[in-house]
Fold this sequence. Notes:
Blueprint: E1 2-3, H1 32-52, H2 60-73, H3 76-82, H4 92-109, H5 116-131, H6 136-155, H7 165-212, E2 219-221, E3 227-230, H8 234-238, H9 242-245, H10 259-271, E4 278-279, E5 283-285, E6 291-293
Antiparallel strand pairs: 1-4, 2-3, 5-6
Amino acid sequence: MQCSGEDRLPASALPGRRPVRSAAPFAPDRRPSTAFAVTVAGLAPVALLLSSLDAFVLPAWLFLLTGGLVGTLAQSRVQRWLAGGDEEDGRLWLRMAVAMVLFGVTTACTGTTFLLPLAALVVGASHIDTSGGRAWRPVAGCAGAVLLALEALVHLGLLDSPLSPGASHGVALVAALVAMLALLTLARTEDDRRALMCEVRSAEAWFRALVQDSHEVLATVCADGTLSYLSPSAVSAWGADPEVLRGTHFLDLLHPEDVLEANARFSQCLEAGGAEPVRAEVRLRVAAGEHRWM
């Protein structure tokens, strides 16, 4: 019997377990027309409040129109259509351009164009989760182009803002830098996560290939001592289906005289973190009630 670091493998790396990939945080998938109507209905009280405060610098109907289109764009079926069917990799620049233009017009309606980088951060986080770290470039590029165009209109006096042109440019610059740093951090984190999951899948595939045709019995023991996996060769060693033994404490399968020795070796393995192999010769109880040395 040999103990190694297998008892410390993450659950996603164990045979039979697949790492679960998180879904992108899109809105509930509705028909585009329904999504548009629901979004407009939700924005209507906001538009009324902004109108009462005389906060609109562009028509309120344009705010509702672009807001409704933003809600429609958030639907998965719309994203798949814009992406040509490949929601993960397809037409990222096109999708980002459409999103940033819509958000840009929405912020322009209230003269708050300097808030566009915050919208870019939200959109970027969603697409980085779906498409990986490479999505930050289309988000940053499209948001930067739209932001420059809007701030140019503010500077030329063609678009009103609650701030002076200089203050608007300053706030926009700070917001853009913060959003850029956040997007880069999210992109690197997502790429690292994907690389790690790829390594885990490769290790799982290697482990499966190793144990499927091996005549030796390989077992994965959790830190609490329960068996989480037994190789198919355990049938000949135990005389029983390995699946029946899953969840059993490994000490319950040993000769009573070997329990203390095996438990000491197992504790030694845990303390070492699996860095060094720990060997022990113990007697294993098989299905027939006999004991075999291992």
